[in-house]
UniProtKB/TrEMBL annotation:
Name of the protein in its database record: VanZ family protein
Key words of the record: Membrane, Transmembrane, Transmembrane helix
Membrane-crossing residue ranges in chain numbering: 7-28, 34-57, 78-97, 109-126
Amino acid sequence: MKKTLKYYGPAILWALFILIICAVPFNTPGPPGLFFAGFDKMVHCVLFFVLSVLYCAGSIRKWNTRSIRIEIAMKNTIVLISFGALIEMLQMRFFTWRSGDWNDLLADAIGGCMGIFGVMITSNALNHEKS
């Protein structure tokens, strides 16, 4: 357990931040889009993009590789989408002041996949540069 926290500590802290943000009731007057239509989806996408980058960085350090392997990327994708689904289920069932939305889960998945893809491209480019 301690070893997992050593590698995935920043990702775990960011995941807790996401969970808290998604549990807080927002009682703002005006339209539900806050700043513009789709702002909520963009926030979900960015939060999960950062989470996936932190999670992939932990995976690279844990497995002591120079880049992320495809099987690790697939596992990370499943974990991130499952976490997004858990948040949406909690919003539907327990956080009654919030509403779970399939579109939020889609934004979570897109942000997570964008982050994993970005880490794969960046690590491959850095490794190609070193060789």
